[in-house]
Structures are given as C-alpha cells and as structure tokens.
Amino acid sequence: MSKAKLALRETAAPAIALITSISTLVCCTLPAVMITLGMGAALSSLITNVPQLIWLSAHKPLVFGGSFVLLCLAWGVRYLTRNMPCPADPAQAKLCSRLRAIGGWVLYIGVGVWAIGAFSAFVLPKLLA
User: Fold this and answer.
1) Within 10 Å of residue 102's Cβ, how many Cβ atoms?
2) To the nearest whole number, what is the mean pLDDT of the chain?
3) What is the pLDDT of residues 16-41, one digit of tens each?
4) 16 close to 74: Cβ distance less than 8 angstroms
5) Are 67 and 24 spatial neighbours (Cβ–Cβ below 8 Å)?
6) What is the pLDDT of residue 69?
7) What Rg, from alpha-carbon coordinates, does the chain have?
8) Rounded mean pLDDT, 97-107
C-alpha cells in the first residue's frame, strides 16, 4: 500500500470531522466571543466582508447536526478499522501506527471543539438570559 493511500485511510475521516467542528466555532462561538470582548465593530466588519456567517448563525441546528453526524461517522470508521492490519514493511508499519495515533488525536480535538461550540451556541445563552 502506498504512503498516500495509507495516510488517507487513517486520517481522512478524523480530518473531515475536525473541519466541520471548526465550522461550529466560526458560526457561533466567534461572534459571541467578539461581542463579549467589546469588538462589535470588528464583528460588523467581518459580517460585511463574509456574509455567509449570517447564514451559518441562522442555521445553527443544521450546522451542529451535520457536524455531529460527521463526527459519529468518523468514530464509526475508526471503530471499524481499529483492528485492520498495518503493512508488513517495518517502515510502513511504523507510519501506519503513527497515523492511527494522529487520527485519534485529531478526532478527540474535533469532539472537544464541537463541545465548546455547542456549549457557547446552546447552553451559554440560556445561562446568561
């Protein structure tokens, strides 16, 4: 198996899950933090230059639901491939085990980022109200 295929197999799902989790931060946490820190003018400028943020914020449940589904799929892929053998070549076996570890950390980071975004989008407004 080539190094590129091995890298794709071990890290693609966690990387996609991390990217979608980061979108939850951009959608909901970034505006809340900017307003809290008194950067309303900067947020206004950001929304003027990137109007897609308004759509993301208006469709919070869709953004979080989609990212949650992708996180679950990434965990499922990781679970199903946990016992897949690494290549017999020692160099590729070492790379395989390293990529599995990196993929796991990326997935944990993605879940953490998603949890921070969900807290700031759904729980924190209820606590502050």
Assistant:
1) 15
2) 85
3) 888 888 888 888 888 888 888 899 89
4) yes
5) yes
6) 93
7) 18
8) 87
Residue 28, helix vs strand vs coil: helix
Q: How many residues does the chain have?
A: 129
Q: Give the confidence band of 7 by pLDDT, cuts at 50, 70, 90.
A: low
- Residue 102 tokens, joined: 């990196």
Instruction: Identify the CA nearest to 114 among candidates 46, 13, 2, 21.
Output: 21
Non-local (6+) Cβ contacts of 35 within 8 A are 43
Q: Mind listing the pLDDT tens digit for each residue in 58-69?
A: 899 998 999 999
User: Rounded to an integer, what distance in angstroms lies between the CA atom of residue 71 and that of residue 46?
Assistant: 28
**Spatial separation of the C-alpha atoms in residues 51 and 54, rounded to whole Å:** 6
What is the spatial distance between Cα 82 and Cα 80, in angstroms, rounded to a whole number? Answer: 6
* Segments in 25-129 forming alpha helices (H): 30-36, 40-49, 52-58, 60-80, 90-118, 124-128
SS3 86: coil
Domain boundaries, the chain: 13-128
**Residue 17 to residues 53, 79, 106, Cα–Cα distance (Å):** 20, 15, 8
Containing H/E element for 5?
A: helix 3-24
